[in-house]
Design goal:
This protein has six helices and ten strands; from the N terminus they run αββααββαβββββαβα. 40% of the residues lie in helices and 16% in strands. The protein is α+β, with helices and mostly antiparallel strands and 241 residues long.
Length: 241
C-alpha cells in the first residue's frame, strides 16, 4: 500500500475513535445532568413538575394543626395586618369572645345584707341562768350603763346610744333593785347600724363586748339566725356595713 494512503487511513481511524470517545463522553454527561434533575436530595421529583410550582398547604396535609395555627397567628403583625403570604391571621376578636362567654356564665354571689337591727343573743350555759348581780357586775366592767328604759346601754361621747342590752324575760327590762333575786336565761345585745355615724366601729365594740360578757358569765353567743356566732358571720356583717 502506498505510504501516503496508509497515513490517511491511520488518521481517519484516529478521528473516528476520537469522535466516538467525544460522543460517549457527551451522552454520559447528559445522562448525569438528567439524573441530578430527577433527584433532589434523594427525593424523586415528578418530571412533569420539573419547573417547581409554588408549594401550598395541599402539599403537606394535616401539618398546620390548630395549635400551630394559633402560634402563627400570635406572631402576626399587630393591628390585624396580614403577613406577606396573607395566609395566617389572628382570629378576629377571639379574646373578646372568651370574655363575653365568661360574662354570660358568671353569676355573682349575692351580697350579704346586714339586718336593720343586729341582734346577738347570749344564752346561759348553766340551768339557773344569769344572776342579776353577776350581769350588773359584767356590764359595769365593759362600761354599759343602766338607762331610763331599764336596759343597759353603750353611750357615745355625746351620750347617744350605740347599742343596748335587754333581758330575754318579758318585757325585756332589768330590775333596778333586788338584783340578787333576779335570774334570766339570757340577754339580747342589739344595735341599729342605719342610725349610727360609724357603724363599723360600733359593731367592732359590739362584738368585743358580747364576747367578753359571754366569757365572764359562761354563756354561748348566738347570731341573728340563732346559730352559734362564728368569725365568718362577724366578717360578713362587718363588710356589709
Amino acid at each position: 500500500m502506498d505510504k501516503e494512503l496508509l497515513r490517511i487511513v491511520i488518521i481517519a481511524t484516529g478521528l473516528i475513535i476520537i469522535t466516538g470517545m467525544l460522543a460517549w463522553a457527551f451522552f454520559k454527561s447528559k445522562k448525569y445532568r438528567q439524573s441530578l434533575d430527577d433527584f433532589d436530595d434523594g427525593i424523586p421529583v415528578n418530571t412533569e413538575r420539573h419547573l417547581r410550582e409554588p408549594i401550598d398547604d395541599d402539599d403537606f396535609p394535616d401539618i398546620f394543626d390548630e395549635e400551630v395555627a394559633v402560634t402563627l397567628a400570635s406572631a402576626a403583625p399587630q393591628g390585624g395586618e396580614a403577613s406577606k403570604s396573607g395566609r395566617y391571621q389572628a382570629p378576629a376578636a377571639s379574646d373578646d369572645r372568651v370574655e363575653h362567654d365568661d360574662e354570660e356564665d358568671y353569676v355573682p354571689e349575692p351580697r350579704f345584707a346586714a339586718p336593720s337591727i343586729i341582734q346577738f343573743t347570749l344564752v346561759a350555759n348553766q340551768e339557773e341562768g344569769f344572776n342579776g348581780l353577776d350581769l350588773a357586775h359584767a356590764f359595769n366592767i365593759v362600761g354599759l350603763e343602766y338607762g331610763n328604759l331599764n336596759i343597759y346601754e353603750r353611750l357615745d361621747a355625746n351620750r347617744l346610744v350605740d347599742f343596748g342590752v335587754a333581758s330575754m324575760v318579758k318585757p325585756g327590762t332589768f330590775p333596778e333593785h333586788d338584783l340578787e333575786a333576779y335570774y334570766c336565761p339570757g340577754v339580747v345585745f342589739f344595735m341599729q347600724p342605719g342610725e349610727l355615724d360609724d357603724p363599723v366601729a360600733v359593731f367592732d365594740d359590739f362584738v368585743q363586748t358580747v364576747v367578753f360578757v359571754a366569757t365572764e358569765l359562761d354563756g354561748t353567743v348566738l347570731d341573728h339566725e340563732h346559730k352559734p356566732l362564728s368569725e365568718t358571720t362577724v366578717e360578713l356583717i362587718r363588710h356589709s356595713l
